[in-house]
């Protein structure tokens, strides 16, 4: 079986199961099904730079927010059985394999997590403020009591020295 066919079948199953759409594409394709969209074409052109090992973008569309990612597929010896007629050589960028993931549930989880963190920080802040207020009140009462005891001691010493 053709590896691209097997990969396309697997991606189709994942899309049905998880809502994650996989793509296999190239600038020169044998099968028109693998023709890239505008984003894929720009990504593949960017991946022609040997220093790039992936291209991704987070896009917000009317249907929701999506992460699109594509990684390069370099031509190997086994690829030349079918793709040599297109002029490919071993090591050439033959195309890319990518994924498009709906981010809605992940963004909801992120929002929920941040809300929980904010709530916990507010609770810690309130606990700290209450602790500061209690220690201040406690310390103030100790100072007042100490001053009252000191006054009593002074009065008592004055009364003792008169006797």
Features:
single chain; 163 residues; alpha+beta; 4-stranded antiparallel β-sheet; 4 strands; 21% strand; rod-shaped
Average pLDDT figure: 87
The stretches of 5 or more residues where confidence is low (pLDDT under 50) are: none
Q: Determine Rg (CA atoms, Å).
A: 35 Å
Number of helices: 4
Kindly report how far apart the N and C termini lie: 117 Å
Largest sheet: 4 strands, antiparallel
- Let me know the number of strands: 4
User: How much helix is in the residues?
Assistant: 40-55%
Structural class: alpha+beta
Order of helices and strands: HEHEEHEH
Beta-strand portion reads 15-25%
The coarse overall form would be rod-shaped
**What's the arrangement of strands in the largest beta sheet?**
1-4-3-2
Q: Quick gist of this model?
A:
The protein is of the alpha+beta class and 163 residues long. It is built from 4 helices and 4 strands. The model has no long low-confidence stretch (mean pLDDT 87).
Q: Could you walk me through the main structural features you see in this protein, from its secondary elements to its overall organization?
A:
- The protein is α+β, with helices and mostly antiparallel strands.
- 55% of the residues lie in helices and 21% in strands.
- It has helices spanning 3-18, 38-47, 80-83, 104-162; strands spanning 20-25, 55-61, 64-74, 93-102.
- A hairpin with a 2-residue loop joins strand 2 (55-61) and strand 3.
- The chain is rod-shaped and about 125 Å long.
- The termini are far apart.
